[in-house]
Amino acid sequence: MSEPILEFDDVDIEYSTRGDNAVHAVNDASFAIEEHDYFGLVGESGCGKSTIADAIVGGLDENGEVTSGAIRFKGKEIQDYSEKQFNKEIRWKEISVIPQSSMNSLDPVMKLSQQAVEMAKYHTDLSKAEAVDRLRDLFDVVGLSESRIHDYPHQFSGGMQQRAIIAFSLFLRPSLIIADEPTTALDVIMQDQILDHINELKDDWNISMLMITHDISVVFENCDSMAVMHGGQVAEAGSTVDVFDRPRHPYAILLQNAFPDVRYPDRELAVIEGHPPQLREKPDFCTFADRCPWSTDECYDGAPDPQPIEGDESHMAWCVRAHEMEELAAEHLEKPPEASSILEGSR
Ligand SMILES: Nc1ncnc2c1ncn2[C@@H]1O[C@H](COP(=O)(O)OP(=O)(O)O)[C@@H](O)[C@H]1O
Ligand SMILES: [Mg+2]
Q1: 45 lines ligand 1 (CB under 6 A)
Q2: Given this structure, which CATH class describes domain 232-346?
Q3: I want to staple 248 with a disulfide (CB 3.0 to 4.6 A). Which of 46, 48, 59, 322 is the partner?
Q4: Average pLDDT in the 28-49 region?
């Protein structure tokens, strides 16, 4: 297998807070994004998804820090890069981010074409005309009219601004694009259209994508592989087909059953009771244990180690009962039909 484009290796991320214990937002997180893959990171609000995205581009809030483990991009450790190094080597050029709230990321006093010229001047040897041409092509890619490239951002609706930002995120031909909950600003149909457009470039440019969302069905529809997070810990990771056909972490199982599923229109949706714990210390237990119908004393006895799941070697579940879960879950839940047949049909 080729080297992953991005690798999280046992990463801890903390936010220091004045006069209180630090927030342990991400703990022992491990996952890998293979080159050319669309990777989905899913989990409910507050589980640490944006913290992971921010850490990858050196964009953690002032009080945030990667306190242990390694983040490797194309094999190089980047977790200790300075802001200057990130700006010079990584941001936009190699990894670009489509942010969760994008309204402030365009310069309000500059025409979009001028912003492209500035970006090209700083990062490339393109001429002004070439920079404008490139933006024009990208407007086409994201479904904006090319005639609008000389507009100011305020002349665009919110949805159009979001598309313009996506065009800029593609401008320097990065190898990894991080989309942090783009659905919150884009409606679903628009999102599908844009993904279709990006998919057209995927092969030419060898693009990989980290797609962050709280909606597991978005991952199911769009991603090759995925990780499910709960309470600052990775719960399960693997190919999308494996995680859907053979989920082995209770949270992944329940999450899948908590969303409407085209494969199973009449199913009653499972409700996941309770909340993840506040993490003011590094958790030495499974953060899902309190909410888990199958938890035992062992779940509170140390953070769970990854259990390889039979089949593809990338499929892991961080659950001490992973190997019993198929049986345990079958007693509680109706199992939907296999995902692989449906995925093949839709691709
Ligand atoms: N700057 C910060 N200072 C303190 N805590 C923070 C900060 N940013 C995020 N957090 C906390 O870190 C945890 C993870 O947040 P986040 O990564 O934004 O989650 P998600 O994107 O999954 O909703 C949450 O408990 C959140 O309150
Ligand atoms: Mg977030």
Answers
A1: yes
A2: alpha beta
A3: 322
A4: 94
pLDDT, one tens digit per residue, over 261-311 is 666 666 666 678 889 999 999 999 999 999 999 999 999 999 999 999 988
pLDDT of residue 92: 87
Sign of the four-CA dihedral 197, 203, 208, 212: positive
pLDDT at 187: 63
Rg of the Cα atoms in the chain: 21
Q: Inform me whether the pLDDT recorded for 335 exceeds 70.
A: no
The gap between the terminal CA atoms of the chain, to the nearest Å, is 23
Average pLDDT, rounded, for the chain: 88
DSSP state letter for 34 = -
Q: Could you state, in order of their start, the residue ranges of all structural domains in the chain?
A: 232-346
Q: Which ligand is nearest to the CA of 101?
A: 2
- Ligand 1 binding pocket mutation candidate from 12, 41, 51, 54 (most atoms within 8 A of CB): 51
pLDDT digits (tens, 9 = 90+) for 52-76: 999 999 999 999 999 999 999 999 9
Among 307, 247, 7, 141, which residue's Cα sits nearest to residue 219?
247
Residue 25 beta carbon below 6 angstroms from any ligand 1 atom: yes
Q: Do residues 125 and 204 make contact, with C-beta atoms less than 8 angstroms apart?
A: no
Does any ligand 1 atom lie closer than 6 A to the CB of residue 23? yes
Name the one residue in this structure whose structure tokens are 């665009």: 156
For residue 248 and ligand 1, the question of a CB distance below 6 A is answered with: no
Amino acid 241 reads: V
Tokens 């990780």 correspond to what residue? 227
Ligand 1 probe mutation, 11, 18, 23, most atoms within 8 A of CB: 23
